[in-house]
Each structure stands twice: as C-alpha cells, then as structure tokens.
Amino acid sequence: MMTETTDFALNSSLGLALVVIFGLIWIVFGWYLGRSNKTHEDFALAGRNVGFALAAATAMATWVTSNTTLVAPQLTYQFGIWGMVGYSFAALGLILFAPLAARIKRLMPNGYTSGDFIRLRFGQGAWWVFIVISVVYAFGWLISLGMAGGILLQALSGLDYHIGMTAILIICVGYTLFGGLRAVIATDFIQALIIIVGVVAIAWFLIDTVSLESIHGELTNNHPKLLDLLFPAAVMFLFNNIFFGLGEIFHSNVWWSRALAFKGKVAFKAFLLGGFLWLPIPIVTGFIALAAPQLGIFPPSADMVGPMVAAEVLGKVGAIVVFIVVFSALASSLDSLLAATSDLVTRDIYHKKLRPAAKDRDLFRFNRYCIAGIGVVTWLFCLPQIATLGALLNFAGAFVASTIFPIVLGLYQPKLCGRYAALAMASGTVLGLVGYFAIGFYVAALTSCIISAIVCAVGLWRSKQHFDWQLLQESS
Amino acid sequence: MPNLIRFAVYIALFLLITLNARPASAYVLSAQDELPVLSAPSQSREGYFVLKLSEAPSQALWVEYSTNPEFTKVVRTYPWFGDFDRMTLSGFSNGEHFFRLRSNNQPQANQTQLSNVVKVRVDHYPLWQAIGLFLVGLVVFLFLAGLIWTNHQRSRNDD
Asked: Membrane-crossing residues (chain B) (predicted)?
C-alpha cells in the first residue's frame, strides 16, 4: 500500500524531549530564585526592589506572548498589512501606561494590586464589577496561552494538542509556585533575550530564503486583499486592537504588580523603553505569515501559521528555534498572569474579605495554593479547543476596554465617583459584547471604550465629590 | 531530601508521565480511501474562511479553487496540511469562490477522485463603514492620549 507521512518539521520524540528539557530548566531555575523569598511581599512583589534593566525586560517580555508570536501572524494572515502594522500599535498600551505607572507608584507606594486601588478609590460596587472583568480577562488570557502551547507543539511536531497544553501549564505553575514574582521577572529577562535574538534570526533567514519579490507577486495574484490598505475589516480592526491593548494593560494586575514592584522612579522609564522595544516585534512575526501562500502553507487554523512557516523555511533547526522562542514567549506571559491573578485573589478576596487577620505566613501559603488552583482550572478550560486564539482574546476586549477611562480618570480626577465608575465598566462591557456578537470582534473593544468614556463624562459633569488621595494610603 | 526538591522531582515525573500518555508518532496517511465531504461557510465579510472536512483525511489531498462552479479553469491549488480536518484561506476579494478536493496532484491521472463543490461568497464591509469606525477610534484615542499626557505633566508639576 502506498503511504505518505505527514510533513511535520520535528518528529514527535524530539518535540517531547524539548518540552521535558525546557520544563526542567525553568522549574529548577524558579526554585533556585525562590530560596530568598522570606515574606509574602518578597513572593508577591519581589521585595519592591526591581531595577531598571530587569524592569524594562519584564515589561517587554510579558507583553510578548501568544498575542505576538501566534496571534500577530494569525491577524496578518487574515488582515494582511494592516494586521501586522495594527498589531504593533499594541505597544501604545505599554507606552501610555508609563505615566500611569509613575502615578500609581506615587499614590500607592505600599499598594499591592489593581483591585486595592479600585476598592479604595471607588468603593465596593465598582470593585465587584472590576473583579468580574479581571477574572474573565485573566482566564481568557490564561486559556489562550495554554491553548497556544498545545497549538505550537501540534503545528511543529504533530503531537496531540492536549500534550503541549498540559506541559506548558505544568512548567509555568511549577516555577511560579517556587519562585513567585522574583522568578517570574528573572525568567522574563532571559526569555526577552531569547525572543529578540530568535525573532530576528527567523526573519533574517526567511528573507534570505524566500525573496520579497516572490512573496509580493504571490499575494498580488492570489490573495490581493492582504496587500490592500483599504481592506475594510482590517481598517475596522485597527483602533479596536489599540483599545483592547490599552484596556488589557491599564486594568490588569500583571502590570500594576510590576509598577509596584519596580524600584523608586524606575517604572516610567521601564514601561516606556519596554513599549519601544516591543513595537517592531509584531511586524517581524506578522511578516512571517505573509510568506505562507508563497510557500504553499495553508494552515488548519490561522493561529498556527507563524510556527508552520518558520519551520518550513528553516527546517529542523529552525523548528527548534521557533519552539524555543514561542515557548519562552508563552511562558513569560503565563507565569506573570499566574502570579498576578493569584496575588489578586490572595490580597483582594482572601485577605480583605475572608480572613482579615491572616498572618504573612498564611498569605504566603494561600498564594501558592492559589497558583496551583488557577493552573488546574485553566487546564480544565483548555481541554476543549473552543475557539481560535484571536477570537478568544478579542472576546475579552469587550470587558477590559471598559476599564480604560475609569482607571485613567480615577488616577488623576478626584471628581469621578464610584457609582459612575461601576456604571461605566458595566455598561461598556455589556454594549461591547453586543457589538462583538452583532457586528464582529473588531468593534467590541472600541464600542466598550466609547460607552465607558461617555458614562464617565456624565459622571464628572454631575459629580459633587472631591476624592482625598490620602485615602489610598492603606496600611498592608 | 528537602521538600522543595522533592516537589520539583514529583512535577518532573508527572510531566514525563503526562507526555507519554499519548502515542508519540506522526500521522501516517494512505492513498486508497474515499474522499471526505468538503464544507465551507456560505458567506465571508472579511475575505478569510475555513474549509472543513467531514472527517480527518486518510490520504494526501489538494484543494482546487475556481471562480466558476464548473471549474473550467482552476485558478489555484492548495495542498492540504497533514491529517487536520480544516484549512484556513485568506485574502479573497468580493465575489463567488468555488472549491473542491482532489485526491491526486496530477489532475489528468486516471485514479483522481474529486469531491463535492462548495461556494463561498465574499462580501466585504462597505468602505465608508470602515473609515467611519476608524475616524471614531482615532478621535477617542487622541483624546485619551491628550488626557493622560496633560494630567501627567500637571501631576509632575504638583510634585
């Protein structure tokens, strides 16, 4: 009988070996770094003493995630030039967060989480709305990262999706459990170096192997919309993506915990530099997808196109490079999100609501249980591969974009009260979801942000309160 | 052995067990089975869509693309990737696009099998709608950036 073997870049055994080797390296490294964690503050905020180099690297590396390594090529494959360029504008999230981070550090030098700020600034009602948004977003992102691990291994080696997904979750839970934020930031630094070198190498080999002229010719003849700057869905997607990115960063405890962990006045410069370093990365990763038609690669799912093209061009060595780069990118985000979400649950729910008298040792222990628990819940949600990465992430856009104006105005304007902040977040989310289902994912975040801004404007106009900033100085 | 090291060893062992729970081999295809049924969405507003098979392929497949249902001229042929049951295509302009599966990469070969034909109508959003949303987004973004910048300057001066 004539048979033909599927042309995966790596064989399954090599894929498995890479996962095991990487998993062990990161877990042992996390354990090594975690030895100096003596208090819950050490574990959750790395002793509030992170210097500039590590701060800028962790800002960049955390933002380089499945979004950049898998979704940027996906959106380029779907939206062409605008998908690539538009995706790089997500750097604006980091850049505009730089002044906010400086303000956060100034207003709440002893703060712990973004939930702390919302509770103290806007009260319980707004806090509940915010927690719902944060949890939906955190799990949306965690699930997308777990899924990305599975998709990566499946695209490169043909291994079952569930194996890669399970492996990356175990590895990241493992080293975050041992090392806390200190391990997360240190691994981010190494992962940032790997990502930059790897992405540049892949793009270099790609241009060297497949000429720009041939890529352009193939797209012009057979996929003309990908080169069209007036591609309607892509034009609609552009600002939606920007507001999604802003919402993600402005509200998420991933970024607040970093702003609070950075030493002195480092936060502003670190986020600014991190943003500018991040800006070109989606251009490079997205460009890879434009070569797919020329190479005869038409992926099963659009989010698999990046690794498939890189592996095709670079062969087995290239596939190993792709694996290392994407795995690093996924891990650098997954560990951050695990740490930040467990901090939020430990501080805002366990400590503030359930056990106010809990000692530092109790918080330390609960935080670790929480990391393991979040890992298990994420794994369960990842089991059915429910959507593409892009669709899953953009669903969360309706939620997070509603927090942009309440956060910004809450940090600077003493007149905005909690009732209007809560209403802005709730109504923005609901109408953003209406836009998501009625029109498409490319309007969800934009709609949500605009509705939230209008409610905040009404709130400022009608407000008679003047918030006392000293009320943010809560003792831990 | 300290608890943390023991825990690390347990995690590593669990990882190994999990990874070996499934067969570690690439998929093998044969060239003698019936073609699966091809399906596709009837309409796309974005120029990209997913072609699906009724079952995972058991042989190497190609997708033929034409702009007419009789396939008098095959515009492009797409190789199906691996044993996946779907393929994503993108970058199509407005119009009707037709696809079918072929079992052999040599169209004139005697044993070539062809599948059912599916039609996808691509109808992009009107440009005025896209530009309108773009401009709304631009205005809100500039307002937000200005708000952050002026408040940042003011708070620095206050310090």
From this structure: 127-149
